[in-house]
Amino acid sequence: MGLLRHVATVSGWTAGSRVLGFLRDVLIAPVLGTGPVADAFFVAFRFPNMFRRIFAEGAFNAAFVPLFARRLEEEGEAAARRFAEETLAVFLFVLLALTVAAMAAMPWLMQVIAPGFRDDPGKFALTVQLSVIAFPYLMFMALMAFFGGVLNSLYRFQAAAAAPILLNVFFIVALLGIVPFTERPGHVLAWTVAAAGVAQFLVVAVAARRAGMGLRLPLPRITPGVRRLVVLMIPGVLSAGVLQLNLIIGTIIASFRDGAVSYLYYADRIYQLPLGVIGIAFGVVLLPELSRKLRAGDHDQALASLNRGIEFAMLLTLPAAAAIAVIARPIIVVLFERGAFDRLASEATVPALVAFALGLPAYVLVKVFQPAFFAREDTVTPLRFAAVSVAVNIGLSLALFPWLAHVGIALATAVAAWGNVALLALCLARRGFWRADARLGRRLLRILLASALMGLGLWLAAAGLDPWLDAGLGLKAAALLLLVFGGLGAFALLALATGASSLAELKDLLRRRRGRPAGPAEA
Description:
- The relative contact order is 0.12.
- The chain is globular and about 65 Å long.
- By secondary structure, the chain is an all-alpha fold.
- It contains 20 helices and no strands.
């Protein structure tokens, strides 16, 4: 259960961050609504965030962690530290250059990222201003990803998983303590993004020093290790960041219709909770887990870890996807409908959330399958599949947007993700790197059955509680809480009744015992 303990650590902190993120968005919605300031801020926030997830968390970790883990396993800690210092020196130099260049070129970059804003000069100018203020967030978050990769390779997951909470804490403080006293809420929130990036970087840098990885900063030079990192990282820019590329493509298309960017943002925030808690957590833990086992020659245990990762990821994801799709309306109405976010905005956001939910298991499976390639220092194969997925997403988004507006963009993203999953799984199987064992096959069928039955029960309950959504905030919140906790309880009972999970496994995970060797079924 070592894998699951680490996943529980990352998931727990990520869940805390996402819950605070919901509170952040609940506070943002009545202040910004879905108007021009909201569209400008969300583009400004998403721009460095997109680069962070593609270059820092995605491509960089996909390339760096296996190389760092190899040195830990084969050459020892001193060699691993030298490689980390060489990487940090070059990485920081590139980040500084990229940040300065992007801030200087922001008016031209925004014409690519949000071309639909050009018809509104005021909105376009505001988007450029906010993007310039927020963009340094990328540099500090990339450095955070670097130190997080070092810590994760040492199986110290807590600091890197906990640091993102600071972003939402900073937002909440700004929304409650500063925004009510200013006429420029977009600028305040953009400065908040930049400040939170600095704070998160400091947390992981200090944690790395305490873990014995206090790094010096030599002069940047391209050593053989850094050259290999760059070779692996170039294709990883697309392969590990395919979801973010799909989202930014959706933003470009959505910018041609008023409010569409904001509808997709609010829908995205909901499904990002299970994606972050489950998918990103498994991806973060599986990469060093598989890398170190493969370097130690333990291929059977690496295969077992991948199968158990798929099993437990789906045990959490499939019921989450079913629940979000069924109770999308109560979720949006209760969390966001107040102030500038009215019932029309809710009705426009709900179908986008349902479409995103259909792809949620695929988004998670991509995060689980990709480390099996990255751990083998193969970032080229996922790149090819990512390119296919992006092409599918662009084609479907353009085809569906005239008919379904922003909902077509969300649906295209889901379909593209499922295509990516199919390609990754088939390739791993053909190369002999993955085969579903008998336990995984049995468990997936039972998880599907339990999720479907829970979804049916939630649908009936939501229909009965629908009148509460037109009542006061207390009854609205009560309706959502009943649905959420009722769904959780129903799925837990159904999972045990169908054999999708067992009490023994749940008790073992909750104990989070340390130092005990994993049995064959647990690895």
